[in-house]
Write a structure and sequence with these properties.
Radius of gyration: 42 Å
Number of helices: 8
Order of helices and strands: HEEHHEHHEHHH
Distance between the termini: 125 Å
CATH architecture of the domain at 10-132: Roll
Mean pLDDT: 76
Structural class: alpha+beta
CATH superfamily of the domain at 10-132: Ski
Strand content: 5-15%
Largest sheet: 4 strands, antiparallel
CATH class of the domain at 10-132: Alpha Beta
Number of strands: 4
Helix content: 55-70%
Oligomer: single chain
Strand order of the largest sheet: 1-2-4-3
Shape: rod-shaped
């Protein structure tokens, strides 16, 4: 397990980053845990400086989002049932927390969280790159598959036993004489002499 410079495992931070409303966010409850403050204290500091946290930096989870998240956690790992819906902080919101929480720990935790966000972006970029390469490979293989199928069909045709020449039914008359003529033509020819 890779550790950050202050002893917080990077994996712990990465597991605390969720995709909600199409954004990577961290929840106020988990941030409070990392900062080693009570969630209520964290949110009081934020609300005293609410002008620093526009909607694209922080938003409160809807009841549906909250229920969905709770269903993904075992109660003990979630920290028990909470009455208030947690807030979600985007990467910019987390960065802004360092200006609100002025402890040394908050600054160090923020540095580690920023590193975790950067690492996730790098991993996402690598995944996109790999996905593109895989799609290219699949299209090339599909083209090769079609060509190979044509080759196999040609080989099957070459391997098929040749069709036997069928013998004609009946008999064939080979005469080497004068062509047949009508009787009338023969009679007319003999009277004309």
């Amino acid at each position: 397990m890779q550790k950050s410079t202050r002893g917080i495992p990077i994996e712990r931070i990465q597991k605390a980053i969720f995709l909600i409303r199409g954004q990577k966010v961290m929840l106020s409850t988990q941030l409070a845990d990392l900062y080693d403050v009570a969630p209520k204290v964290l949110m009081q500091s934020v609300k005293r400086n609410i002008d620093r946290f526009p909607a694209d930096f922080m938003f409160q989870l809807s009841m549906e989002e909250f229920e969905n998240l709770k269903s993904q956690f075992v109660t003990s790992s979630w920290g028990g049932m909470r009455r208030a819906r947690p807030y979600a902080f985007t990467e910019q919101g987390v960065a802004m927390l360092s200006s609100v929480l002025r402890s040394k720990r908050a600054v160090q935790v923020n540095i580690e969280i920023m590193r975790a966000f950067v690492k996730l972006r790098e991993m996402a970029g690598t995944h996109r790159e790999l996905a593109k390469k895989l799609a290219d490979l699949e299209s090339r293989l599909k083209d090769h598959d079609e060509k190979i199928e044509i080759i196999f069909e040609a080989i099957r045709q070459l391997m098929a036993p040749p069709e036997e020449k069928r013998r004609k039914i009946g008999f064939e008359v080979k005469e080497g004489g004068a062509p047949y003529v009508k009787k009338q033509d023969v009679a007319d020819a003999s009277h004309g002499d």
